[in-house]
Amino acid sequence: MKKILLAALLIVPALAAAEQRIGVVDPIGALQQADEFQDRFGKLESSLKDEQSRLDRLGGEVEKLRGRLEKEGMTMSEDERQDLQTQGQQKMIELQNLRQSAQRKLNKGQQEILEVMEPKLKQAVETVAERENLDVVMNAQAVVYVQSNMDITDAVTQQLNKMK
Length: 164
What we know:
The chain is mainly alpha-helical. It has one domain: 2-Layer Sandwich (Protein Binding, DinI Protein, Chain A), CATH 3.30.910.20. 77% of the residues lie in helices and 5% in strands. It has a two-stranded parallel ribbon with strand order 1-2. The longest helix is centred in the middle third of the chain and has 54 residues. The termini are far apart.
């Protein structure tokens, strides 16, 4: 009798698991493919173009000063060499500050995008899960193997695009 009860206890969870429908989603992939995300990220990149241009310009100036110091440094007076080194150091500090500022703006912009898109992603996953009659939806990064018919990432992206 104990053996039958033990066998039944082992089989019941297996049967319950067999009835569950599981989907897998790559949330980052679904977001990155969504039209709204791409629009918002494109605007963020555009807003950073001025900073990028300034970074490129300053980087060029620093390289130009280094090249001049390497080529002409031996023939310059001590005062000229010191002045050139000081200019280079000032440009490097300015470059580092601008780089940090641009990185902060990028991080803030990305955070703002995620704050808007995360609830929409959650809603899209729920909508697809209900439509597909799924019991569980797992993050694709937590799964080692999945059959392609269980991946709902494209369906979530399509749902996100409908939610504009």
